[in-house]
Fold:
Amino acid sequence: MLQPGQAAPPFCLPDADMENVALVDFKGKKNVILYFYPKDGTAPCTRQAIDFSDHEAQFARHDCVVIGVSCDDCITHAQFRDENGISLTLLADPDGDVCRAYGVWRDPDDNGQRRSCIVRSTFVIDKRGKLRHALYGVNPKGHVSEVLGLVKQLA
Structure:
């Protein structure tokens, strides 16, 4: 698991419009709220994306950009975004490489009972590229308010 104070693992992934987005694009310019979620279109993931989207202007006032990551592909992200009015950047990590780098990938247990998937997690990365907060196993209900509170402390 990643810890606050560490350098955030770099990433460069395609968004819903198949444009590459990299962490380095924001260095020195914006804080990054990077959240990982299991799957487009599920009720908790939709609720979380809409909640982050609804608070996007508040995050922007604190020099933050919010980015969601899942293993869904770009086309699925575009459909999810368009069907739900989501304004956030959604990145596709179909191979799970960035998920593994951030420690959010959960492999099947020894009995093969649990499929590989993403542990819902959020990272607050400052303008220098350092992790300020690493939140693993979050509950989508009320989570955006919690993250907004953490962001207000960055100044």
Notes: The chain has one domain: 27-152. The mean pLDDT is 93. The first helix runs from residue 43 to 54. The chain is about 30% helix and 25% strand.
